[in-house]
């Protein structure tokens, strides 16, 4: 089974914690790990990190690689533009 985590939103509703350069999925809301890291933690044990894919905006690719250095580069989908507004 392949899992897709959508992490491309700008997180405007969680201001001031969340900013356009660092939306809520990259911020540690509870504890030291971001909500994205916590989501990956919950699924990687059961499915393996090789089966976890993350869809995001191109501008957040570097943030994801920094937070999830073990995620295979091929499992990171950077989209050039936001869709389905």
Write the layout of secondary structure elements.
Elements: E1 3-6, H1 35-47, E2 52-57, H2 61-67, E3 76-79
Parallel strand pairs: 1-2, 2-3
Instruction: Count structural domains.
Output: 1
Principal-axes shape call: globular
- Class based on secondary structure composition and strand pairing: alpha/beta
Round the Cα radius of gyration to an integer and report it. 12 Å
- Low-confidence parts: none
Mean pLDDT: 84
Q: How many helical stretches?
A: 2
Calculate the terminal CA-CA distance, rounded to whole Å: 28 Å
Helix content: 10-25%
Strand order of the largest sheet: 1-2-3
* SSE pattern: EHEHE
The largest sheet, given as strand count, sense and whether it forms a barrel, is:
3 strands, parallel
Total strands: the figure is 3
**Which strand-content bin applies to the residues?**
15-25%
Descriptive key words:
85 residues; three-stranded parallel sheet; alpha/beta
Would you give an account of this structure?
The protein is built from two helices and three strands; from the N terminus they run βαβαβ. With 85 residues, the protein is of the alpha/beta class. The chain has a three-stranded parallel sheet, with helices on one face. Strand 1, helix 1 (35-47) and strand 2 (52-57) form a beta-alpha-beta unit. The longest helix is centred in the middle third of the chain and has 13 residues, at 35-47. The model has no long low-confidence stretch (mean pLDDT 84).
């Amino acid at each position: 089974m392949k899992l897709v985590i959508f992490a491309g939103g700008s997180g405007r509703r969680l201001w001031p914690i969340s900013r356009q350069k660092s939306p809520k999925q990259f911020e540690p809301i509870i504890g030291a790990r971001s909500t994205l890291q916590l989501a990956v933690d919950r699924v990687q044990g059961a499915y393996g990190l090789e089966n976890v894919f993350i869809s995001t905006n191109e501008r957040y690719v570097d943030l994801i690689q920094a937070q999830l250095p073990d995620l295979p580069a091929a499992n990171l989908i950077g989209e050039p533009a936001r869709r389905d507004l």
